[in-house]
Amino acid sequence: MGMARTPAGTSDNPHGADRFNEERAAYTVASAQPNLEAGVTAIRETVKTLKPVPGVYRMLDTRGDVLYVGKARSLKARVANYTQVNGLSGRLQRMVSQCRAMEIITTNSEAEALLLEAQLIKRFRPPFNVLLRDDKSFPFILLRSDHEFPRIHKHRGARKAKGNYYGPFASAGSVNTTLNALQKLFLLRSCTDSFFKNRDRPCLLYQIKRCSAPCVGRISEPDYDKLVDQAKNFLAGKSGQVQQDLEKQMAKAAEELDFETAAILRDRLRAATFIQGSQAINASGVGDADVFALHAKGGQVGIQAFFIRGGQNWGHRAFFPTHTKGVEEDQILSNVILQFYEEVPPPPMILVDRELPESELIEAALSEVADKKVALSVPQRGDRRKLMEQASRNAVEALERRLAETGTRAKTNREMAEFLELDAPPQRVEIYDNSHIQGTKAVGAMVVAGPEGFEKSQYRKFNIKSAQTNDDYAMMREVMERRFTRAMKDDPDREREGVWPDLVLLDGGKGQMSSVQEVLGELGIEDLAVIAIAKGPHHGREGREVFHFPDGREKMLPTNSPVLYHLQNLRDEVHRYAIGAHRAKRSKAITASPLDEIPGIGPARKRALLLHFGTASKVRAASLQDLQRAPGVSDTVAQTIYDFYHAGG
To answer: How far apart are CA 645 and CA 619, in angstroms?
Structure first.
């Protein structure tokens, strides 16, 4: 794989997107404004350097931001197509008009280019690519294999631990429900290794029959291994075999009049029945597969996904990709599937509701990711067809709900803009609050909301530095100064999306408004919409909030107003976030030790000193000879500790 930056013409061999050189000084032509002729000129300069080989290209704007990521079997032919502007759609013409430079990466195959394209789209989130907005990680069930008594638990993130991973599950709720039932069914431990090692009697999970207590020897290692094997079989789709074995064991215990054992086996059978009975979707006979169905309406697209493993439904989730205008529906589905499997391992079978372009190429790319054969299929009959019809119905219903919610939300945003006297509904709202106790451990908080709701990846907290007195106004001034000094540095002309807010909401009244106006005035910012939300004269009465405007006016809303509820929701979210940040800072301070201030004393030595002396005060009072006798403390370190506490005599 190779990379070239044009028109500069540099190249390297990164072997992956995370190793690309990100120093991108955009090639700028005479006109800095979006201009079709300038874009075509930049692309033609790129075409001169290209060869008919597979790879990935990135279009960049005047600031070097990525506009679009695409892949090609022949880079030269594909990129040259963009110079034939008469044959391009309006969307692509707008993209070309903003292009001022390109970056090229060559790959060994078209399948490799397809995977790299999805990786770069997920990384850069370009405005002209179809984007899978849902960037939440999916939970898995992990049955570990690095302990003599394997642990079963919920897992998110990179799959680094040794063991068997089962998933994805559609939500934390679905994985928790399944995990609780599995614990009742197989009595496997869920505790951490350190907790396991330090037990001298069974914990509560043993008492409620959700663990076999291997920590204190209530079950032998061979018998525990049998439970682990049963769990693996069940999660691999052999649930019928597991249930038959349990039924035989229960019948045998009953014949031998061992009613206690029979009752335990009966409860385990009920847990197995619960897991299977909780499947709202009939996936018997499907094995391991993911199901995708797409529905489009009103300019929006909804995609419903079902996750089937071992013939069991592990949940379903709806996706609503963005930047889909002007893109064919089958291409949208292809792009979403490729981005989805950037985070999730593909199953052997992917069922889709339509033929996809370049399906063989997608199969080859996903097979490379999974290191096994992956097939795309459009089911025509039988159980798979019924499953697809159910997914299609869910896609329609999910999009209908989405459109209804979007319509209500859009109306509320319009009414909010009118009430707050804004020129247009805000695309980015920033809400601010402070939290502290008598000025200590003070934290400022910013939460962000967009047209689709809260954008939690944009939340920020500010550790208050200069304003350490019990002065809320000084704290807010510091937060505002830091926030908008940075905004002016990053984007002084306010051209970049997501840097400047359309509306600033403050949790406070006239005082907070005056403080913020003072800071913004010092920074030369005069056109930023700022509103302060304060509780009314009767603080105990919900819905009597007063909205303070920069010119000193005050307004209120009816208690049953949807706009009032929306603004309260924004205020409550920043309040929740600020309190959480303050509590985290306070908890960290409580666990801090005076030993942390001594240079050269890390966690291991601090632990050794506290174990030896008992408390930090006794370390302070210790003689040099006592310090030298502490385990893990050298003479040099002992001298450092002694000098720290006895400097100056």
So the answer is: 9
